[in-house]
Amino acid sequence: xxxxxxxxxxxxxxxxxxxxxxxxxxxxxxxxxxxxxxxxxxxxxxxxxxxxxxxx
Length: 56
What we know:
The chain has two helices and no strands. It is mainly α. The longest helix is centred in the middle third of the chain and has 11 residues, at 25-35.
């Protein structure tokens, strides 16, 4: 079984959640670029990502 992906958001002490919430799409893309491992970014580019909704 594959281990769940563990991501470390950018710490931001002034936020109630303790993490930085990007304010613009450019900031969000930069944060995702920093967070996601290269193999996952490559899979997104190839379009070979399967999203599993575990809430159902």
